[in-house]
Amino acid sequence: MSAENKRIAVVGAGAAGLISAKTLIEAGFEVVVFEAGSQAGGMWVYENDTGASVAYRNLHINTDIGVARLSDFAFAPGTSDYPHHTEMRAFLDRYADTFDVRSRIRFRTRVTDVSPRDAEGWQITVEGGQVEEFDAVVIATGHLNDARWPELPGAFSGSYIHAAQYREPTAYAGKRICIIGIGNSACDIACDVAMLADRVVVASRTGTLIWPKWAFGFPLTRLRTLFQWPLVPPRMSTWLYKTVSRLIVWMIFGSMSQYGISPPEKRTHPTSNQFFLSHVKYRRIEVKPGIVALDGARVTFADGSAEEFDCLIAATGYTVRFPYFKPGLLDFDDTRLPLYKRVVPVQWRGLYFVGYFNLDSGLNPVFENQAQWVADLEAGRCALPSPEEMEADIEHRRQELKDKYLSRPRLNLEEEYMRYTAALRAERKRKPGRELVAR
To answer: Considering the entire predicted model, what is its pTM?
Structure first.
């Protein structure tokens, strides 16, 4: 079947969905985008009417515009180095209009079921019961939709929310706040409330490396582009980039231990924040080890100290959930998605996932790389290896993450930009000539 005769559905009109749709439209496919809300932009739409956006009022993205841009579409002149969520939404709105993606979006159309047809292809059911058939489906609804609540060692009597529910700092003026976690959201929220709250404590079982957003006036995430040399293997480029970055971090901040942050035992995802460690130095924020007991308002930490708090905020990440798949369709355990190269489920043909990974760089270009591979597969320009080879590759990556990274749900999705994009480019060169995937 030629590209122009194939219909492909994209579920979700956030960044991953818009980029997938644009790429597939340009490849000649008939594309329909299903979006539960009334606007494009996904999580970058503040107070999105889907109820799924986790954006807070002062949210900025953690990668700069130099690495978050797309191959044929840049941010508007005057955009912040690290765009505010309103600037990110404006970028995506302009992208949807420039490439005529918006006309393909069915707004206020929530998908309730995605199922394989008896022969080939897929069928999609939406609220109201309407059913439509497609040759392929791209799932692009993200992995930040379902808050992960930690198991608390006791009961807390004060206000208790997840970071996904946090919006603005004014409600925390004069309060004593404890934040669980030391990732990007935890540090952002701690900085957001630090100037208004009476006390802010960040409690974390494990350490991390906190990167500044700027170094010597230069966006630090853009440093990666200086190490992408054609003749240097991706592993070596990644090692050089991370080694130089760590040296710069040490030159600016010194050792993390002087801030009360212990070095992690294995690799983890770095936290990006320009102000957090300064707040720690000014004693507006204190870093504590993990919580070992809760009793009413009293919180006891692993170092034996205890104090009372008004608010507890769990910045503990998200679970991965697909409410539109019937039980058993996909065999996965929380964030352990058995996808070949993070995109293809081995047991199904014509089903793809764009955006289900965690990265040390800008996400948008990788969405684009994934979508280009999907377009090539559906157009027959490249092929997949055998199911056995794909399963072996998935297991190899799972074991690699287990050996090298801390055991945390979020890190099951971890990828390194240069290595991963090189792998996607290699897949696009795999010559067709065999059946793609057996059911």
So the answer is: 0.93
